[in-house]
Amino acid sequence: MSRLVIAPLLVVLGTAVLTLALGRRPQLQRATSVAGVVGYVAAVSVAVWTFVLAPAAPGAATYQVGDWPAPFGITLVLDGLSAFMLTIAAAVGLASMLFAVRYVTPENQRVYYHPLFHLLLVGVTGAFLTGDLFNLFVWFEVMLIVSYVFVAFYGTDYATAASFRYLVLNLFGSALMLVAVGGLYATTGTLNMADMARRLANPAAYGVDPAPVVGLSALLLAVFALKAGLVPFQFWVPAAYTAAPPPITAMFAGVTKKVGMYAVVRLYFTVFAGVPVSVDLAGSLGASPLAFLAPVLAAMGIASILVGGFGAVGQDRLEGVFAYSSVGQVGFIALPIAVAAAADPTGSLRGVAIAAALVFALHHALVKGLLFLSSAAVQDATGTDSLRDLGGVAGHSPVLSGAVFVALLSLIGLPPLTGFFGKFLAFDTAVRGLAVDLGVLSTLALVALLLGAVLTILYATRVWVDGFWGPETPAVETSTVDQGQVAVLVALAAAVVLVGVGFDPVYRFAETAASAAIDTEAYVDVVGLDGGGGA
Known about the structure:
transmembrane; mainly alpha; two-stranded antiparallel ribbon; CPA3_Na-H_Antiporter_D; 22 helices; single chain
């Protein structure tokens, strides 16, 4: 049964190889690519149900690559947290692929689109499953190498410049991550995350000096914030998002950004939370690296909400609005995590806050995927996504516009859509923080969330009024919308509605994921560490 843990990874890796081999048979290549994504969804669904969601599920499972026992071998871990993130990847990946076969030209699909798409999923899946810190770096690199190519996909001057900036920035980030990983190995004597957590929780027993962990974890936070597009590392986002093919932009916003936030939660709460080391930063005094994470991540989250929100209000293209909106919305994920870091580990707030962040991550993935794909459908039909050249899309294509309307309402936070629950839980986390005397952090978080909500209403209203309402422009009047693309958008809009209407099991899943993130002992137990005490 443990082989089910590695099944999603094998499916996408096998599909990448097959689609590369079928480059001279484009129709078969496209069919194989779609079948591969469907197989990935099936593999994720079976594994998540078997190990996490079924009534008799164990809650977590591991796969030891090559039968090498932990901590010496490569360990893959499927628990509630990784299962939740894999579910997001499967949902957005399926929608993006189905849209791509209708949107990307056959010539561009034939060149390298399909193998690279599945390699992107390989990197994402490996990052969510790995139980080894060095292999987290490796899977990050797999994901990033593919991303570089996709940003430069169309080969224009703009795309090439955006890809080069993205490449240079992430090369520095990767070097920084490698330094941090090497420093943690030198400090703890292991790269296995469960073994590292065990050693750091009881450093005297293993002869470990925990003091360097705070600084090394700060390096990792900078890298993960870069991957997530948090301020002040957000400046690559608008150019990369507008240069890449829209189905890939949906993957960037919906999935790859979440890898950075997942890594923050996994390492800080599962691995570093028990480190007995004093931290005194900006009045935040604590006995673990979480005391460092709380104020720094809160500042990043607040800045992201403001920069992204005001940036989106000032854009005059759909892609530009949604790219800056993505910067702002990731701040709504970061702030609950910051509150969780500041919360008392013995109380309930930490789990509630992480669950809130995960629910908002799910909302963001579905809605941003829908909006970026909708922008592509509009541009494909009209030849433009400029707000000044659009107008009357609602009357010309009511089904497409209805899907966009659902996404915008969810972005604003109207019940019973996913965005309502995401924003409600984020606000609830900040209010709970005030109730347990988290002080300035919760107050600033609450103010930023309120301002972010107002900015979201402003740019969402502008998109609808300027781009979809009013009299038809010449570009819209002569346009023809691809019905296959619209079908994908309708399916995503239906998912946004259904997740909101049937929110209770979704929230229970998020609670399970949050519990897995903060239960270090359970994580160590499931990995086993049969091989002993580490390298």
